[in-house]
Structures are given as structure tokens and as C-alpha cells.
């Protein structure tokens, strides 16, 4: 697959999502988030992923306002948090997110986690937002195959995205295949294992062979599995590094080695 920083993937409703984005999970609110997002946009990122629970939606909004990039050229994702789930409360939570972001619409709105007894009503609220033109696409996050089946069976709208933790050490192959077979595009968060496996000998050896960093190998691995990928950083040098993954291709032998590293390593849990 040949990609550039401007490459997009087509979602099941025809919307194009940039394949590489900047995640701002655990990026401190205030100047840190504003600076990181402004820098990412400056060097060519077009996709920013935030959430209500991150506490930095307003900072993302400020960076967008201060940026020279046109709003229509930027893809913004945010998410409804667990305590706001339910039909009416989701609609209210969305309007609050929209106000904090300072936007008139969001490109992608996600259910952050599946919550038993609430997600069906939450999904109905997302469908309403979609049909009212408040969002361009809707999806879910942290959904298992069973969670996805329940949503698909209960609605005539299939999620456009399932955003999950995904990297060679958590190679969710069955979930990946299920998503693709149901026209749900998988999106990888924590693709760098939150730094926990960047020193793995196989990763280091492959990185040296391609004259790349371990982080760049992990981002490229996700791209070559046809995922949208949103590495997180608030350091400019790493934001730049994570974007410099389009001038090489991991061969199949090395992809197979990376695929074999799965150890069901999860670095993010529902608190």
C-alpha cells in the first residue's frame, strides 16, 4: 500500500477519514494541547482525535481557531463518555462538546465504551445527530465482536469506525477481520504501546534494518494492516517523527514477524 500524510480511507457512508491522525489522550489541557495540535496542523496532519473525558476539547478548539488550515480540511473526532450515555443525555453531551470545540459540526462522533443497558439508546442518539447533519460519521470505540454484533442487529446504521487499542503486541486479528467483513473501518489507538514495547528486540532490529525508529515501525505496521492510526504525543519532535512513515514499506517477512509478537498486551483499561 502506498500512503502519504494526505491519504484517506473511505468510510461506509462515503466520508473520507485521514489515515494518520494526532491523538490527544493524556495530553495536558491548556498550552500543551494547543501547542501540539497547532504544530501537527502546521506540518500537515489533518486529523485530530479528542474526547470529552480527556478534558482538552476546548484546547483543540483554540488550536483550530488559531490555525491557518481551513475547517473543512480538518477531520475532528470526539466521543461521548460513559456517564453521559443514554438518548437525551448523549444529545446534551454532544452539544457541550461542540461548544467546547467551538465548531458547528464534528466529523466523527464515537461511543467511548460499550455500557450494558445504555449503548443502544446512545447509538440512536448518534444516528439522530448524523441525520441532522451535526456529524459526518458515527462509530464506536473499545467494542468487541459481540458488542458490534449487538449494534448491527439492533439498528439499520452500521458503525463507520471501531476505535480500539491495536499494535503488534495486541494483534486483534479476529476483530480486524470482523470489522472489515462488516464495512466497519478499524482505527488504532495506543499504536506505540504507550512506550511499553518500543525496546522490544524484534522491533529494534526491524527499525534498524529500515533506518527508522521503533515508533515509526509500529505506525507503519498499523497502516499496512489498513487501519486508521492515531499516535499520541505532545512533543513536537515525536509528532513529526510519527508522520515520517510514508517513504518506506515493511516487507512481508518482517510483517509476519511483527504479527507474531501478539501477547494480548492491553495498556488502556476502563477505570
Question: How is this structure best described in words?
Answer:
There is one protein chain. With 271 residues, this protein is an alpha/beta fold. The protein has a single domain, classed as TIM Barrel (Alpha-Beta Barrel), CATH 3.20.20. The protein contains ten helices and ten strands. Strands 3-4-5-6-7-8-9-10 form an eight-stranded parallel β-sheet. Helix 3 links the parallel strand 5 and strand 6. It starts with 7 loop residues before the first strand and ends in a 12-residue tail after the last helix. The model has no long low-confidence stretch (mean pLDDT 97).
> Radius of gyration from the CA trace?
18 Å
What shape does the CA trace take?
globular
For the residues shown, what is the average pLDDT? 97
Total helices: the number is 10
What's the number of structural domains? 1
> What series of H and E elements makes up the topology?
EEEHEHEHEHEHEHEHHEHH
Spans of at least 5 consecutive residues whose pLDDT stays below 50 are none
Distance, first to last CA: 37 Å
| Main CATH class | Alpha Beta
Name the CATH homologous superfamily.
NADP-dependent oxidoreductase domain
CATH topology value: TIM Barrel
Number of strands: 10
Major β-sheet profile: 8 strands, parallel
EC number: 1.-.-.-
Keywords: NADP, Oxidoreductase
Enzyme class: oxidoreductase
InterPro entries: AKR, Aldo/ket_reductase_CS, NAD(P)_OxRdtase_dom_sf, NADP_OxRdtase_dom
Amino acid at each position: 500500500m502506498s500512503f502519504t500524510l494526505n491519504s484517506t480511507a473511505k468510510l461506509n457512508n462515503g466520508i473520507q477519514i485521514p489515515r494518520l491522525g494526532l491523538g490527544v489522550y493524556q495530553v495536558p489541557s491548556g498550552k500543551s494541547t494547543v501547542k501540539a495540535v497547532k504544530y501537527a496542523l502546521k506540518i500537515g496532519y489533518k486529523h485530530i482525535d479528542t474526547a470529552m473525558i480527556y478534558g482538552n476539547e476546548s484546547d483543540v478548539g483554540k488550536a483550530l481557531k488559531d490555525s491557518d488550515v481551513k475547517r473543512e480540511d480538518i477531520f475532528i473526532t470526539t466521543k461521548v463518555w460513559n456517564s453521559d450515555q443514554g438518548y437525551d443525555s448523549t444529545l446534551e453531551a454532544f452539544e457541550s462538546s461542540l461548544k467546547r470545540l467551538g465548531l458547528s459540526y464534528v466529523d466523527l462522533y464515537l461511543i467511548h465504551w460499550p455500557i450494558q443497558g445504555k449503548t443502544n439508546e446512545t447509538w440512536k442518539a448518534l444516528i439522530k445527530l448524523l441525520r441532522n447533519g451535526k456529524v459526518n460519521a458515527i462509530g464506536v470505540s473499545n467494542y468487541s465482536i459481540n458488542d458490534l454484533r449487538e449494534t448491527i442487529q439492533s439498528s439499520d446504521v452500521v458503525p463507520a469506525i471501531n476505535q480500539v487499542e491495536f499494535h503488534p503486541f495486541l494483534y486483534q486479528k479476529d476483530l480486524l477481520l470482523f470489522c472489515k467483513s462488516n464495512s466497519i473501518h478499524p482505527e488504532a489507538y495506543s499504536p506505540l504501546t504507550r512506550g511499553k514495547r518500543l525496546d522490544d528486540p524484534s522491533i529494534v532490529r526491524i527499525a534498524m534494518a529500515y533506518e527508522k525508529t521503533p515508533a515509526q515501525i509500529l505506525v507503519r505496521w498499523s497502516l499496512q494492516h489498513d487501519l486508521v492510526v492515531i499516535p499520541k504525543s505532545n512533543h513536537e519532535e515525536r509528532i513529526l517523527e510519527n508522520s515520517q512513515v510514508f517513504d518506506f514499506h515493511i516487507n512481508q517477512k518482517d510483517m509476519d514477524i511483527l504479527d507474531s509478537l501478539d501477547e494480548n498486551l492491553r495498556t488502556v483499561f476502563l477505570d
